[in-house]
């Protein structure tokens, strides 16, 4: 019951967070010394006062700033994020189009990052200071420090163009038609439509961008797992376990790993939050229509409704992920209590 | 260690299995869509379109999609010299240049099967006027539209407009199936800018009579055009055209090399070099209509020494145009005035080898009283024009101007920030770019004194009344020979006295697979998709 109350309370505060984020983003984006009229109207129309007035009236820019904000919040509490000036579509529709592509890639990337990151971290900790440890530490440093757009380009050049063993950019092969939209997660939608070959193609296209994006988080997870595990392995209860004659494998899997996981889960949470925020450069290289590209274009056009919409979405992501991480803490460590 | 290795090997095997397993689908993927062997063209581009509503769309790539979907009364075929009849069978211009009468092709049907009539033309143009979209200014000169019979449309103009036929090639004049559009929320009423609800419908559907229809549109992913089975003209070669949104030129290049796409449209000069000797690829070069120019303010309070016409001429003579063309890439040229090569009446471009004359420039500086030079600011937006970085060009200008004693400090800012002072005319010296509003020299008259762009340099009509007069004449002259003469005279005068110095008319680089043809560049449509076919 304590847990449910805790979740309900956290979600309740989410409402205030959303309004707070909208206010901060609204103030910051309206402080930029430039004019959305210039960004969105053609040169000819800017010269025509009637057109400028019509534009301002259409987007409510003829009203005082505080009125504009209150209208926005009024609509927001009814679930209406407004209409994008640039695409002239409801922001919610735009987000529904772009965000699933990001979710699909983020999930795939985080799975790769968790599997390899934790495994490498465990091996590295067990074989501390061995050649294997050095190799893994080298890989994790590379994963964290190599710019992902460069890695993306190299992967495409090597595995797609040169060797021809990996898929090209895009969510599916250019010859194929996207699946009928249900969730807009292509793999799921293709499976729902019973199109197995399209599902495989969509999954196949997640490989390179997934590896590129996953490599950064993988590096972080590897390093955190290693250091956390090393710390736990030096504690008294591990010595006791050893004294009891348990095998090294049992000590790690049953006793050490669980205790070492809390900082790792935190890193995974932050990494997943970052991935869900979209990655403009990697999305551009892999022609991936994700939220990063949408946010980038929105900012370039001073498309206020879209900018605020994306900011709210990203802040909700973090709140939900942090909540999940907190819940996981409790599962991993029964001493954690929710208040 | 051995155990760990085993785990590692097992993991790598899993990854390999995944790759191979999914890779199997690659064979299926490389087959053209559909088992019926439908012919499909795939073009990659970095699109800017946000809507396919012909009454609203006014982006650079809008007509690439809308030209093959919506017929227009007039159209361009191979060059931008003069438009030819489109859905109009013939046209007639009254002697006073105020009335344009069009006879429509008979028996034309929309893709829906509805017949196309003069009423549809009138309805479509009225909708564009009342929607007040970005392209609505093209309709500004229209006084009234009459439809004396179902096959005749008459446009009455408020005043003569030498560019009216060219304006008719735009999608703002695209003929819409009014019956179908109204069923989906469209209206031509005076309050259409607020009461028309068809924009979202038009984004994923179409109501035209052109060779293709819009089959689907997924923002930032693709637009799919399918053959219009009711098309009145010769059917296009491809059953489907897929326009893929791939913004990175490097990615486009890789996909072209692999044969995954047929056209890579947004390449820079450096990309072209990479594929010069690659088999199966044809490199295409064309003249873009985009200009890069220097704005030199004529108001002494803002420009200081820059406002002096002799200093402005000295700047024109001090620059190394050959070096700038090297920065902009092969195929770029330097027109003598803000009139693009390719438009009616444009003079041949400057010879970059002889255009620079430092001695003469120094003499002019002396004449202006600035023999020892001066300091000023060169403002530039941080963006790339046709693959060329504007701040890089600013550095080149900075070096060139040092030779005549002008010391410039480069001030960079984001385009959204830079636009404001540019439009208000408060920049002393700045570097800008320009794309024509429509493919006719009339759109370039904006650079003349007293006109919108001229005023951004505070170049008022009173400063060169002769040029202003000539501009007015050129804007309305319907006789081609007389118009060319006027335009040539304007350019010669602007070469002598202008607040603008055109630095570059850029080149457009793109590449196609070598088994297709009909992909020649035409600035308005980019590529006329109707004409593309297999070799």
What does this molecule look like?
The complex is a heterodimer of chains A (339) and B (535). Chain A is mostly helical. In chain A, 75% of the residues lie in helices and 0% in strands. Chain A starts with a helix and ends in a 7-residue tail after the last helix. With 535 residues, chain B is α+β, with helices and mostly antiparallel strands. In chain B, 32% of the residues lie in helices and 23% in strands. In chain B, the strands form 6 sheets. Chain B has a 10-stranded mixed beta sheet, sandwiched between helices. Chain B has a 4-stranded antiparallel beta sheet with strand order 4-5-7-6, with helices on one face. Chains A and B meet through α3, α4, α6, α8 and α10 of A and α1, α2, α8, β10 and α9 of B.
Q: What's a concise summary of this model?
A:
Chain A: It is a multi-pass membrane protein. Chain A has 339 residues and is mostly helical. Chain A has helices at 2-31, 36-40, 43-46, 49-58, 65-76, 91-126, 131-145, 148-162, 186-192, 196-205, 207-233, 236-243, 248-276, 280-285, 291-300, 304-332.
Which band does the percent of strand residues of chain B land in? Answer: 15-25%
Record field, number of beta strands of chain B:
22
| Biggest β-sheet strands, sense, barrel of chain A | none
- The averaged pLDDT of chain B comes out at 90
Subcellular location (chain A): Cell membrane
Domain ABC transmembrane type-1 (chain A): 99-325
InterPro entries (chain A): BPD_transp_1_N, MetI-like, MetI-like_sf
Keywords (chain A): Cell membrane, Membrane, Transmembrane, Transmembrane helix, Transport
């Amino acid at each position: 019951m304590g847990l449910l109350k805790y979740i309900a309370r956290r979600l309740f505060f989410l409402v205030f967070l959303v309004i707070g984020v909208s206010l901060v983003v609204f103030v910051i984006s309206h402080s930029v010394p430039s004019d959305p009229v210039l960004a969105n109207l053609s040169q000819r129309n800017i010269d025509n006062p009637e057109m400028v007035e019509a534009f301002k009236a259409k987007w409510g820019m003829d009203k005082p700033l505080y009125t504009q904000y209150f209208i926005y919040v009024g609509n927001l509490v009814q679930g209406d994020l407004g209409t994008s000036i640039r695409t002239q579509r409801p922001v919610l529709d735009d987000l529904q189009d772009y965000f699933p592509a990001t979710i699909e890639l983020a999930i795939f990337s985080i799975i790769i990052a968790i599997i390899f990151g934790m495994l490498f971290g465990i091996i590295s900790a067990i074989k501390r200071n061995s050649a294997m440890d050095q190799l893994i530490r080298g890989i994790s440093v590379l994963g964290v420090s190599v710019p992902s757009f460069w890695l993306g380009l190299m992967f495409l050049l090597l595995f797609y163009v040169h060797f021809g063993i990996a898929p090209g950019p895009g969510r599916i092969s250019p010859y194929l038609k996207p699946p009928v939209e249900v969730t807009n997660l292509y793999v799921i939608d293709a499976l729902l439509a019973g199109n197995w070959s399209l599902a495989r193609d969509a999954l196949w296209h997640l490989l390179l961008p997934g590896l590129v994006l996953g490599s950064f988080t993988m590096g972080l997870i590897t390093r955190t797992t290693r250091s956390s595990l090393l710390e736990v392995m030096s504690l008294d209860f591990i010595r006791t376990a050893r004294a009891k004659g348990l095998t090294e494998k049992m000590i790690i899997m049953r006793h050490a790993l669980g205790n070492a996981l809390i900082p790792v889960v935190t890193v995974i949470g932050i990494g997943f939050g970052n991935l869900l925020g979209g990655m403009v450069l990697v999305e551009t290289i892999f022609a991936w229509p994700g939220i990063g590209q949408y946010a980038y274009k929105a900012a370039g056009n001073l498309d206020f409704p879209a900018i605020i919409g994306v900011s709210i979405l990203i802040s909700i992501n973090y709140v939900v992920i942090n909540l999940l991480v907190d819940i996981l803490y409790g599962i991993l460590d029964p001493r954690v209590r929710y208040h | 260690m051995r155990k760990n290795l085993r785990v590692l090997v097992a993991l790598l095997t899993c990854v390999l299995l995944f790759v191979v397993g999914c890779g199997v689908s690659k064979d299926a993927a490389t087959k053209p869509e559909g088992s019926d062997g439908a012919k499909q063209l795939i073009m990659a581009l970095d699109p800017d379109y946000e809507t396919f509503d012909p009454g609203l769309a006014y982006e650079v790539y809008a007509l690439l999609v809308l030209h093959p979907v919506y017929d227009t009364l007039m159209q361009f075929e191979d060059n931008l010299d003069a438009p030819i009849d489109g859905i109009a069978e013939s046209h007639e211009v009254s002697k006073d240049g105020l009335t344009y009468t069009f006879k429509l092709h008979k028996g034309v049907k929309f893709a829906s099967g509805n017949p196309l009539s003069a009423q549809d033309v009138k309805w479509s143009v009225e909708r564009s006027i009342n929607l007040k979209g970005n392209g609505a200014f093209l309709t500004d000169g229209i006084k009234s539209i009459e439809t004396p019979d179902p096959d005749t449309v008459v446009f009455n103009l408020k005043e003569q407009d030498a560019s009216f036929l060219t304006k008719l090639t735009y999608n703002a004049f695209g003929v819409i199936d009014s019956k179908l559009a109204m069923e989906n929320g469209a209206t031509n009423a005076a309050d259409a800018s607020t009461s028309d609800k068809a924009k979202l419908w038009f984004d994923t559907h179409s109501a035209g009579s052109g060779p293709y229809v819009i089959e689907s549109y997924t923002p930032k992913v693709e637009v799919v055009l399918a053959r219009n089975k009711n098309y009145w003209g010769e059917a296009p070669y491809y059953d489907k055209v897929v326009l893929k949104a791939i913004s990175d030129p490097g990615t486009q290049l890789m996909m072209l090399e692999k044969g995954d796409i047929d056209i890579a449209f947004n390449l820079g000069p450096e990309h072209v070099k990479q594929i010069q000797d690659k088999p199966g690829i044809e490199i295409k070069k064309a003249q873009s209509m985009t200009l890069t120019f220097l704005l030199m303010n004529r108001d002494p309070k803002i420009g200081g020494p820059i406002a002096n016409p002799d200093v402005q001429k000295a700047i024109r003579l001090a620059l190394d145009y050959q070096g700038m063309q090297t920065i902009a890439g092969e195929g770029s040229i330097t027109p003598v005035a803000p009139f693009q090569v390719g438009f009616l009446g444009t003079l041949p471009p400057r010879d970059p080898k002889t255009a620079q004359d430092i001695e003469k420039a120094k003499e002019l500086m002396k004449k202006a009283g600035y023999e020892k030079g001066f300091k000023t600011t060169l403002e530039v937006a941080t963006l790339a024009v046709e693959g060329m970085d504007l701040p890089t060009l600013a550095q080149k200008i900075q070096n060139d101007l040092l030779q005549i004693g002008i010391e410039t400090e480069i001030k960079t800012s984001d385009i959204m920030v830079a636009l404001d002072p540019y439009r208000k005319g408060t920049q002393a010296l700045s570097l800008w770019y320009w794309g024509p509003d429509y493919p006719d020299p009339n759109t370039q008259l904006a650079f003349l004194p007293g006109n919108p762009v001229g005023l951004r340099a505070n170049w008022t009509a009173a400063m060169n009344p002769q040029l202003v007069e000539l501009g007015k004449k050129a804007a309305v002259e319907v006789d081609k020979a007389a118009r060319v003469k006027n335009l040539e005279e304007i350019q010669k005068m602007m070469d002598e006295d202008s607040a603008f110095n055109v630095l570059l008319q850029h080149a457009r680089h793109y590449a196609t697979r070598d088994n297709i043809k009909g992909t020649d560049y035409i600035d308005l449509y980019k590529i006329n998709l109707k004409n593309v076919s297999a070799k």
